[in-house]
Amino acid sequence: MSTGIRFDGVTVAYGRTVVLDSLDLTVEPGEVMALLGPSGSGKTTALRAVAGFVQPVAGRVFIGDRDVTDLPPHRRGIGMVVQQYALFPHMRVDANVAFGLKARKTPREEVAARVTEALETTGMAPYAKRYPRELSGGQQQRVAIARALAIRPGVLLFDEPLSALDAQLRSGVLAELARLHRDLPDVSMLYVTHDQAEALTLADRIAVMDRAGLRDCGTPQDLYRRPRTAFTASFIGNANLLPVTVTDHGRVRLGDTALDVPTGDAAPGARATLCIRPHLVGLGEGPNTLRGTVTEVQWRGVTHRLSAEVAGHRVTADVRELREAPSPGTGIALHFAADDAVLLPAGEAGGAAHG
Ligand SMILES: Nc1ncnc2c1ncn2[C@@H]1O[C@H](COP(=O)(O)OP(=O)(O)O)[C@@H](O)[C@H]1O
Ligand SMILES: [Mg+2]
């Protein structure tokens, strides 16, 4: 069984429009990689290139050591689950799960054993004789997962598999998928989603896509703590993204305020985006003080979310255990530690925290 996926300069175009631009990405054997990005960023296209439903105009796709670029979908050893439970309505659950095996001319006794195994893995064995219409959306999606598993794929592909489910069913199937990952330690999974919560829950690593390209890739913690682009910072978690100018090694200017932050190899005079997570902004003066005016106060249970205008930009702080919240319109001092700030290339995604 081949496992692991590699995109090597994979480019897909429709007519003259490039919708996937020279993607280089490796999913290790046994790894869950989320492809996370907004609608239209090329996620499904990347998945379909692995499945064999779309042919790249350049680049190669590997599954394990095999170059599968020119193989038809059924010879790639992949299982795929898509958004709409694409079950055959006139077939019972067991027949749906057996479908891919029969298409591959698997011997009859083996079909029965594999169907049972796949249904047991997804907790759907008691429903083997039902029709899809007799199941909830979450159960139908479990059957779709069983069908993908039945062929014992080295690679599982998921395209927004939870997006047609309501919130409660979604968290149930999400937990099921996490368990599946533990039960199948050798199977690589590529999981397409626009939902950061799903990616953070499930993925070992996240590949962040935007406008046909890969913008960032790392563990959820890496991307949260050390995003490489303003796009990643704003897409994963909340971020204050402030336009600054590098004045010196280790120093930047926000409006008239000088701040000490790691500047890496950014040259003096360069424009950059300073990223600070709201929970790392404290109330009062500190090593890097930002002075401004309170614009909004939201009580959120454990924290208060304070928004302030600082040098014409919105800065958000999530402050814990605040005895007395400041009033909008009053002056405020906020601070952050140099180590908690990340300097990013001046990005198009500039702006304030959201969510
Ligand atoms: N068959 C197609 N013909 C023309 N354009 C397409 C086709 N499929 C997708 N696209 C375009 O490719 C881009 C990426 O689509 P897709 O990979 O589905 O994005 P995502 O899954 O990230 O939402 C979009 O702009 C989409 O309109
Ligand atoms: Mg899509």
UniProtKB/TrEMBL annotation:
Keyword Ligase: no
UniProt xrefs under InterPro entries: AAA+_ATPase, ABC_SmlMolc_Importer, ABC_transporter-like_ATP-bd, ABC_transporter-like_CS, Mo/tungstate-bd_C_term_dom, P-loop_NTPase, Transp-assoc_OB_typ2
Keywords: ATP-binding, Nucleotide-binding, Transport
Molecular-function annotations in GO: ABC-type quaternary ammonium compound transporting activity; ATP binding; ATP hydrolysis activity
UniProt key word Nucleotide-binding: yes
Class of enzymatic activity (EC top level): translocase
Matches recorded under Pfam families: ABC_tran (PF00005), TOBE_2 (PF08402)
Domain ABC transporter intervals: 5-236
EC number: 7.6.2.9
Cellular component terms (Gene Ontology): ATP-binding cassette (ABC) transporter complex
Name by which UniProt lists this protein: ABC-type quaternary amine transporter
